[in-house]
Write the structure tokens for this entry.
Amino acid sequence: AAEPVKIDIQADKPGPVIARQIYGQFAEHLGAGIYEGLWVGTDSKIPNVRGWRSDVVNALKAIKVPVLRWPGGCFADEYHWRDGIGPQAQRPPRVNTSWGGVIEPNSVGTHEFMDLAEQLGTEVYINANLGSGTVQEMAQWLEYLTAEGDTALARERRANGRDKPWKVHYWGIGNESWGCGGNMKPSYYADQYKQWATFAKAPRGNRPKLVASGGQELELHWTETLSAEVKQMSAITHHQYSLPTRDWKKKGAATAFPESEWISTLAVPQTIDGYLAKHREILDRNDPAKKFAIYFDEWGSWYDPEPGTDPGFLVQRNTLRDAVLAALHFHVFHRHAERVKMANIAQMVNVLQAVVLTDKERMVLTPTYHAFAMHLPFMDATSLPVQLSGVPTYALGKYSIPAVSASAAKGADGKLLLSLTNTNPNQDLPLQLAVGGKGVRAATGQLLTAATMDAENRFESPDRVRPQPFKAQAKDGALSLTLPAKSVLVLELQP
Ligand code: AHR
């Protein structure tokens, strides 16, 4: 029999707290991400609360969405907030030039979004329009949201149905300013950002954290320039998507993919791990006081669009591969929890690596949803180092990754948590668990796996990929278990 992989949790060496915002979401005015997927309007036959569909909202409540980013993405830099307030019938239809050239009806605007956030009980992360808006427009939006006194904008908000100011937690200034947000150089953006941040004012006690738009992949110069030149910011964003082929023209299919695209996709988080280490080196040099966080506010798989759909809607199916990919991202974010204080999967519903898919009145929870649900105990947990020995390499073609990835933490309720993935789709792996070199008595938790790499939940078979209860008991003072091929396992340990 193969030698077991040894996993030893260093419970006496607590690391940083894993911000629950690492499990954040992103919802953009894109395809059926908002309209249809979440917003059906008050006249819909689909049960809804003030226009937001109840099935989807309830599913999202169950994964305790900690923070929600809106209205984009690229869309944020063409969004003018005044289009989305006041009587619905009078709101101007516009063209969504970023996504499919369809009509944006503006039925979902500030009041509707803030209502969704309240229904979900989530923090809000609003991305303001630096690309095609003005400083005045941004300043007035923030005032409209947060003004307490008897100002014209507060009166207007009240006339539109909201008396008390809202709490705005995070305020992004531009998105992907190196690309769809204005094709800027980092130094030009840094100057713009400083001007805009100066006028992003809100009453004391309700000032959002200001977020600067950073780079993507290994673009260290954005992190370098922003952290050297800007003071008025809480975080720099970073984006990276997982494309099986690394080729934007032909990214790879979401289902029925070859094993070579299973491994190439699952190799991305390892790359992110390396990039984050480099970003942290820069930040540690330019910001030793650790004032600036990294918000990884767009991540996830990006495949070729589902055949027959509008390519501008970024519709893709979601399989077991996506659940393993999500868990690997969580492990990376946990490992860098000292600086990574937020991450937002792209995107919440019906777009890219969605946690929920809808088709008219039907809804399905994706394997990625289950990965989020299984990791709920990691929100605000204290990370713990893990020592792994004897991990086999899983290799195919030009990719090789460790077959086992692990992340441990002490939950906010004191429980000892361990999250594991087996990236090898062909081989179960024996494991032996210890805490501080001592044996573990028992482990209980949930296992997510399936018969095939591309197993998925469809509207007509919604439960093909769902977590199953898992239990293991120590024998002769040692806890051994088998981590099935292509799986995610989250355990609570009894030391
Ligand atoms: O998530 C889809 C798009 O990807 C976002 O709008 C943009 O920021 C990124 O390029």
Observations:
- The CA atoms of residues 234 and 382 lie 22 Å apart.
- Residues 268-286 form the longest helix (19 residues).
